[in-house]
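Exam revision sheet. Question 4 asks you to relate a sequence to its structure. Input first:
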Amino acid sequence: MSEALGNIVDELGSQMKKAIAHLETELTKIRAGKASPQMVDGINVEYYGNPTPLNQVANVTVSDARTLSIQPWEKGMLGPIEKAILAANIGVTPSNDGQYIRLFLPPLTEERRKELVKKVNAEGEHAKIAIRNIRRDSIEHIKKQVKDGLSEDAAKDGEATIQGITDKNILLIDQHCKDKEKEIMTI
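Answer key, structure tokens:
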């Protein structure tokens, strides 16, 4: 394999790893009936006029399997944190006791579980689209290399390598989605 072809395959591998890592991050945000601090990732709180991630203005801990406790570092932040959680619409109403904000996760209904599975499958499909786009771009790079003097046989070998890497990553995405679906559907 030529150096240019090797660089294309290496770049493809690193981009696909990023796509898989993004999928894993998104799947951790989908709750499966258990409390997890990642549920509040992505929630920004107004902190002295600036939107600040919740985990930078409060300590987020899991009290028990269905309860998430949020303890702000400043008492004055209780109201803005509560408002930000409500605005984020994560499906949980915050309970404020003057020192902590607690999120009590209700048991998931069958209907809600099916909705979450649909969301998991949608995230999986987004990841597959990203993987296919990366494959397409890599094959276009190989075709440009052919115009610049790369042999047809080397190009075919490179395309086969790229297809093999793509297939492995698609299977990995399917496995992540199946695992998350199983986690959600387990009562």
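Marking note for examiners. The helical segments are 3-29, 78-88, 110-147, 152-185.
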